[in-house]
Specification:
The chain contains 10 helices and 7 strands. The chain is an alpha/beta fold. The protein has a single domain, classed as Rossmann fold. The chain is elongated, with a radius of gyration of 19 Å. The protein starts with 10 loop residues before the first helix and ends with a strand. 39% of the residues are buried.
Length: 265
Amino acid sequence: MAEFSTALPDKRQVAASFSRAAASYDGVAALQRAVGGRLLAGLPERWQPACWLDLGSGTGYFSRALAERFPGSEGLALDIAEGMLRHARPLGGAQGFVAGDAEQLPLRDGCVELIFSSLAVQWCAEFGAVLAEARRTLRPGGVFVFSSLAVGTLQELRDSWQAVDGFAHVNRFRSFETYRQLCAGSGLAVRELVVEPHVLMFPDVRQLTHELKALGAHNLNPGRPGGLTGRARLRALVEAYEAFRTPTGLPATYQVVYGVLQKES
C-alpha cells in the first residue's frame, strides 16, 4: 500500500516542474544550501568512500561539494528531472549523470559506499521503496544520509490559505513519525534521525511564493485549484498571512528531517 494515495504529485509533474526551474533554482536556494551543508558537515572527517551517489542531485551543487570533499572518489549524480541534469552536467562534480527514480534505482546491487540525498525524497510517495533501494545498492558498511521535509512545513502559508478557501495550496509532507517507523523497519541501522525547524523570513507573501516557484517547489498537489488565483483571493491571503508578521518579517517554517542510516556488514 502506498504511503500516500493521493497526497503527492505525479512524478512526471515533479520532474517537469524542477526541469523548468533549473536556471532559477540556485538563485533562491538558501534553505537548500543550509540543509545540505548541515548534512555534509555530519559525515565523518577522515572517511573516504570509494564511490558515492548524489540522489536527487538537482543543479549539482552538492555533487560538486562531494567531489571536493572526497577527491579521487567516483561520483554519480542522479535526478528524475532531466532539465536539472542538463544544467548540472557542464559544471562537473560527478563522473556520471543519470536520469532515474529514487524508488527504482538503475544501479546494480552493492555498488556505492555513500548515498547523499538532500531535500529530494519528500517528493517520493513510497519512502519505504527508497530505503529498500538504498539498502540494495549500498555496500556493507555503506551509509545513506538524507534530509527531507515533514508535516508542519510551510504551516503559516497553509493556515493562511485555509482562511481563504478549502483548496490544497501547499504541498503535503509525511509525518516525522512515519519517517521514524519506515527507517526502523528498513533493515538499515539508524545512526541519527531528528527533525529540526528552519525558519526563513520574507518581507511579503509575494516574495515567498515567487521563491517557491523559482525552486520548482510551488503547489503540485492533486486537487489544487485550476487556473489563475484571483486578485480577491490573493488579497485575502496577504491579509491572513499578516497575522504571522514579526519585527523581522513574515516567517516561513520548514520542518527538516535529517537521517543517517548504515548498512551493517
